[in-house]
Every structure is written in C-alpha cells, then in structure tokens.
C-alpha cells in the first residue's frame, strides 16, 4: 500500500528517523539489521556503519537478549575523540520472528525545569559504579579494564599487560566456603592496590584472575613488578575462616604497541599465563611469538568454530560402548568434530582448548546437547542412548542444568537416554559446581559419569562427594591391563568399590582382544575402544535400519595378516 507514492515502510522510516527515542532491530545474536538516525548518532556512527555490528558490544552493559524492565548502559565512543560519556536507558524485546527490538533513551540529557533531577543524577552515578567496578573487590571490572587498554592503544601509548591468576584458589572455596573465598579475594585485591600505587590500571577480570595495564613499562620492568606482587601475596597470611594458608600467583606478561588490538594483547598475556601454569605455577612468563599457538591463528580458530556453529560445520561422531561377553552395544559416546571444509583441518585437541579459554565452549556444549536431543527425538527407541562430554567451563554455567532439563521436557525425551561425562580433573577443579550439576541432572533422571577416573589425586574420595551413576576408568590403567602390571590391582579396586556403591564401570582404550579377556576377569562389563568399534558420523549410524546400531560392528583391530591386509 502507498500514500501519494510513499510506501508504508518509507513512511515508518521517516517517522522513526524524527523520533526522540533511538531504535534498532537486531537478529537474536544482537547483530544490527536496522537503526534509526538517533541510534546511529548515539553510537557515533553512520547508519550504514551500524549494520552487522554487535549492538550489545556498542552499548556497554546492554542486554544481549529480551529483558523485562530497564537496563542502564553506556555508549561506546572512540577513546581518542574526547566525547563525553553517554548514559542510556535500554529496553530489549522480541520483535517479529527471530528479531529483537532495542529502544534507547539518552538519560544524560534529562533535565527537570532547567535543574538536574537529583534522582537521575544519583542513578547515573550508580550506573558509573556498576558499569566500571567489580562489586567484590572495588577494582575495575573486565569491561572497564579492557576499555582502558583500548584507550591507551588508541593514544599510541606503549606498555605491558600483566595477568595474575591465583594458584589452586578453588580449594579455598571448596574447603572453606565461598564467603571465606570472597574474604581472601578482597584481601589480595587490597595488597595489589597498595603495592601498585597510582598510575596503573588494576582490575579483576573475573574468578581469581587480575590484570594490570602498565603504561610506559617494558617487559623486564613488568616481570620485576610481577615478582614483587607474587611475593607480597605469598607473604599475606590468609585465614579465611580456617587454618592459616598461603596463596601463590602465576603471571603472564605481554608487551603492547599502538599497532596492536586489545584482544590480541589480552590473548598474548593469556597464553603466557597458561604457560606459567603448565610449567608448575608460582612463576612469571613473558609472551614470545612462536612459542605458543600464534595469536592470529588462535583468533582464526575461534572464528572458524563460531562459523561452524552457525553454519553446520560441527558434526558429531558416535563411538559404541559394548557389553563384554554379549557384544551388544549399550550406548554411544558422542565426540565432536570440526568439518567445515577449510584448511588446515583441526582436530578437537587443536580447537577445543582455544574455545575453553573463552565463553565459546559454552555455546559448543549447548549445541552438542541440542543436537543429541534432536537425534533422540527423531529416533524414539529406548535402546538408543547417548553420552555427551561436559567441559570444565560449562560446570560454571549455573543455568546449564536447567537448560538440559527444559530441552528434554520440551522434546519429550526420557532423561535416561542421555548421559553426561565430566572429567575427574574438571570436577576436582570446581567440586561445588560439579556436585550441583550432578545433583540437578541425576534428579531429573539423567545418567552422569566421572570420566578419566583414577587420573586425579584422591579419586575414591570424589565418589563419596559426587552423586554420579558411573565411572569411566582412565585409559592409562587399561593400556597394559593384559600384561599383568600393577594396573590390574588398581582396576580391580575401582571395580570392587564401584560395585559396592552401586555405580557402573566402563573401561576405555580397549585396542586388543587380550584386554577384553583381562577386563572380563576383573569384573568389567562394559568397554569402548577401537577394538570394539571406531567412532563414525552420527548421521551414518542413524541411517541404519531400526535397532541395527545396537549390534556391535565387525572387529576393527584384528591382527594384521596376509589375508586381511588391504595395502
């Protein structure tokens, strides 16, 4: 329909462009599809420049999805342009199908009869505090600290970024409780603040990780400062509601110049920090290009995984778990693969560690769960059961358990058809979170197992603390099980204790028939490995006739002879 040659869409655009409220339409990921002129003005961009950019990123603190009520946010402007801060009132609602509508009002300009409304002034002051301050320690938060790093890079300031991570801090939370951990965290923040003095930007990135932006400071001076900070923290007697203990610090150092981006600098320091952890903790490592995965390659890997999630480049392979003696398949472990058709091909060991250092692994785990549940819906046979792996980062996602339960209920899938595997190392690192998730999933009827069992210190203690339904024996104990080694005694102990606790046992890394015989003598009833069946694409498995996936495939790892050699 048109009016005097003007379409309704054109009329609507004209009206919204003259409105005193800023509007934007985005997709569900927050990427801009349309903005009016006032929104572009607030963002200090042209209308065209706004398109396809992330609105929640441009509006610091804005919701990245539908949100009831008002959220206070801040407009991000160029650090070098000297523009005043703009504080915004943001609302975000669902708009049509798969789109979000953002409505923004610039509250910085509000006045009441020519005099600033005191309530709004206080509101803005509170917003500044919430937007920039870590609520636990009073230091800069992650957003404020990275903004400060970005500002210094824009002003062509050279310097160093220093990351500090407390070693084994989760032990304090797990053994003494989170209130004691919070008390320790505040004490350490005070020590860092006093030792650093003025002139440096100190912040808490989250968890037990701190960062310092050191302007006009070289790497050698940064290392010396990091050593002084480590010594100060180690000398601090931390009671935290229990016996006195001491905390050590690992550090990573990365220099920066005006040609760098803040993301690259943070990634470099992060790689150096992980090198300190891997080398034994309580030390400082300086980033050296080429000694770790190159930062550009790491960013490329992350981009590839994001694209794969969005465009179908991630696939699942299924590895059978076989009941020994009957050769009947009792379930499949789902393994993630990146098959996006791009070079170089990346194995899970190459792309998952990069994803686990950020929030991307949370999206991956949810994608795996959704894909597994969809397959169970399409093949509603009780005998088809899947196990999926849960990353250590996902343990910290407080909504993950509810997400799983909601998806299962909505799909009408019996929870017992879906099992979860958490590595023992991840569970020990965050025991409270692992226990909470295990309780939630088990209460809903899902199976939950402790993977790589026996690899960690005090493994049997974890059986008492975690409400699990099974354990998967670490493959290192299975590798030589048929050679009469000490592994036989250890596996026998695991089987006996598991049987006494009423939980199941699965052995992995079964590659020879002699291992099957040895495990059978020890009472292991279920196992997996290349001898029992290789992983295959889930789509190929499910394409077989109903029930065919429950039969064990022909032996894979037969002894090589002249009759079965294929050249």
TrEMBL record:
GO biological process, one term: regulation of DNA-templated transcription
Domain EAL, residue spans: 298-549
Domain of life: Bacteria
Record domain GGDEF: where: 157-289
Pfam families per record: EAL, GGDEF, PAS
Annotated protein name in UniProt: Diguanylate cyclase
């Amino acid at each position: 329909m048109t009016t005097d040659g003007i379409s309704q869409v054109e009329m609507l655009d004209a009206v919204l462009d003259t409105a005193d409220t800023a509007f934007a339409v985005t997709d569900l990921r927050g990427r801009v599809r349309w903005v009016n002129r006032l929104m572009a003005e607030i963002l200090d961009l042209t209308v065209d420049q706004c398109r396809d950019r992330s609105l929640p990123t441009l509006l610091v603190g804005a919701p990245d999805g539908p949100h009831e009520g008002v959220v206070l946010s801040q407009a991000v402007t160029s650090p070098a342009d000297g523009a005043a801060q703009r504080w915004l009132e943001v609302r975000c609602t669902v708009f049509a199908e798969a789109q979000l509508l953002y409505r923004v009002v610039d509250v910085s300009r509000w006045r009441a009869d020519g005099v600033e409304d005191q309530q709004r002034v206080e509101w803005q002051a509170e917003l500044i505090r919430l937007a920039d301050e870590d609520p636990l320690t009073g230091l800069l938060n992650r957003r404020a600290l990275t903004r400060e790093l970005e500002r210094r890079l824009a002003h062509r300031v050279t310097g160093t970024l220093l990351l500090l991570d407390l070693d084994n801090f989760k032990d304090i939370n797990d053994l003494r409780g989170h209130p004691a951990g919070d008390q320790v965290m505040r004490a350490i923040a005070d020590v860092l603040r006093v030792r650093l003095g003025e002139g440096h930007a100190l912040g808490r990135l989250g968890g037990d990780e701190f960062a310092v932006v050191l302007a006009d400071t070289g790497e050698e001076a940064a290392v010396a400062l990091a050593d002084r900070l480590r010594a100060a923290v180690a000398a601090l007697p931390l009671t935290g509601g229990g016996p006195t203990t001491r905390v050590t610090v690992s550090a990573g150092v990365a220099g920066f110049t005006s040609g760098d981006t803040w993301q690259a600098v943070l990634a470099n320091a992060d790689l150096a920090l992980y090198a300190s952890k891997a080398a034994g903790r309580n030390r400082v490592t300086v980033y050296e290009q080429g000694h770790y995965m190159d930062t550009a390659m790491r960013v490329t890997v992350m981009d590839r995984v994001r694209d794969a999630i969005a465009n179908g480049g991630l696939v699942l392979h299924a590895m059978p778990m076989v009941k020994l003696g009957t050769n009947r398949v009792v379930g499949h472990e789902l393994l993630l693969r990146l098959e996006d058709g791009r070079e170089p091909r990346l194995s899970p060991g190459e792309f998952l560690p990069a994803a686990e250092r950020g929030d991307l692994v949370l999206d991956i785990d949810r994608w795996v769960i959704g894909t597994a549940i969809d397959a169970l819906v399409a093949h509603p046979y009780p005998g088809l059961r899947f196990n999926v792996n849960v990353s250590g980062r996902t343990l910290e996602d407080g909504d993950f358990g509810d997400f799983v339960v909601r998806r299962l209920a909505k799909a009408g899938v019996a929870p017992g058809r879906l099992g979860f595997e958490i590595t023992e190392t991840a569970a020990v690192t965050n025991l409270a979170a692992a226990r909470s998730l295990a309780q939630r999933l088990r209460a809903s009827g899902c199976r939950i197992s402790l993977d790589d069992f026996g690899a960690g210190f005090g493994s049997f203690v974890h059986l008492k603390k975690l409400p699990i339904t099974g354990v998967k024996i670490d493959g290192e104990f299975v590798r030589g099980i048929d050679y009469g080694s000490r592994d036989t005694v250890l596996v026998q102990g695991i089987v006996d204790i598991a049987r006494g606790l009423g939980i199941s046992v699965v052995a992995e890394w079964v590659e020879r028939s002699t291992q099957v015989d040895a495990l059978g003598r020890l009472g292991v009833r279920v196992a997996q490995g290349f001898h029992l069946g290789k992983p295959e694409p889930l789509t190929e498995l499910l394409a077989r006739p109903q029930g065919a996936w429950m039969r064990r495939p022909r032996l894979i790892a037969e002894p090589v002879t002249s009759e079965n050699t294929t050249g």
